[in-house]
Amino acid sequence: MKPSKKCIDLVKKFEGCYLKAYKCPAKVWTIGYGHTGDVTDGMKITQEQADILLANDMTEFSIKVSNLFKKDIQQCQFDAFVSFSFNVGIGAFSKSTLLKKFRAGDIEGAAKEFARWNKGGGKVLKGLVRRRAEEAKLFLGQV
Asked: Which entry of 15, 113, 134, 135 is annotated as an active-site residue?
């Protein structure tokens, strides 16, 4: 599966685009739309490079999310999982109660799990509260 425009728009909205490297609340060097691979202090990129990094990151996370499922899932669920795992990491997602509840068929319970992932650097962040609410809506097909 591939992420839809809704997924990419959600990631862009909440990650924002930064053409100069910065440390996110979790103290990880970040650039573009939340890209964290090979980012160093003082690094700068162009808008075109930010768009390419995002496309590559979305492809990478789409593959990683797809590999967690033996059967097809709904596009809205896939999109929410790609956005979520891009933000928290595929390792955290793969071990999450959210994924366990989804696999058990507890869709409502899984949707509620998004809200628990609202901290960055140990603190509740308003942006993450809003992002998780939108990911849960997307997951339930309400976007």
From this structure: 15
DSSP state of 46: -
Tokens of 123: 């603190």
Residue 22 pairs in a beta bridge with: 30
Supply the pLDDT for residue 125.
92
CATH of residue 113: 1.10.530.40
Whether residue 134 lies in the annotated active site: no
3-state secondary structure of 16: coil
Span 13-42, pLDDT tens digits:
999 999 999 998 888 999 999 999 999 999
How many folded domains does the chain comprise? 1
- Containing 123, the helix (H) or strand (E) segment is strand 123-124
